[in-house]
């Protein structure tokens, strides 16, 4: 990727993240999205920020409804959960078609498995970040549901994401989800069709 000499893109990967399913409801159905962006920003009062890519359907739903749940995933979460909530759009599929979720006080979905806590949020402020929107929220409910360790992004990369195929293709692989772009040059404005991350998150297949 093109960048200034004094910016090592890999340095940014040293920031650690967790992984979460943000659940919402558009009035017709429940929806869920994988994000790594929830952070507690203040403690008195408790405020949590969640940043969502505008290309994700959940962005528009949260902007409209002003509520969401953050489901905190554990290290027991299988890859199928990341595929279901991370690599498909709620515009096209009903992500809760094959399971009935629990409900928090705000009536939004709470995952029955693979979480150790859920946090219900009410949006108080919105910051437009161009490609993304940042929602600043009050905490309206928070419950711990198990003591199993929270999954980190590094744990997901090392232990959950399937290893690349032995059969080598020529091209670039998305470091986030494993999508393979075949070709000699990856366009700078390329966006991963599965996880919506940009060209900076791709690396050449070696
Ligand atoms: Fe991807």
Question: What does this 3D model show about the protein?
Answer:
The structure is a single chain. With 206 residues, the protein is mostly beta strands. The chain folds into two domains: 8-160, Electron Transport, Fmn-binding Protein, Chain A (Pnp Oxidase, Chain A), CATH 2.30.110; 171-204, Rubrerythrin, domain 2. Helix content is 14%, strand content 35%. It has helices at 9-12, 57-65, 79-86, 153-160, and strands spanning 20-25, 30-35, 39-43, 46-53, 67-73, 102-103, 109-110, 115-128, 132-144, 171-174, 180-182, 202-204. It has a seven-stranded antiparallel beta sheet with strand order 2-1-5-8-9-4-3. The protein has a three-stranded antiparallel beta sheet with strand order 11-10-12, with no helix packed on it. The structure holds fe (iii) ion. The site of fe (iii) ion has 8 residues, from loops.
Q: Which CATH top level class of the largest domain fits?
A: Mainly Beta
Fraction in beta strands: 35-45%
Q: What string, H for helix and E for strand, traces the elements in order?
A: HEEEEHEHEEEEHEEE
Number of helical stretches of at least 4 residues:
4
What is the spatial order of strands in the main beta sheet?
2-1-5-8-9-4-3
Q: Estimate percent helicity.
A: 10-25%
What's the CATH H-level superfamily name of the largest domain? Electron Transport, Fmn-binding Protein, Chain A
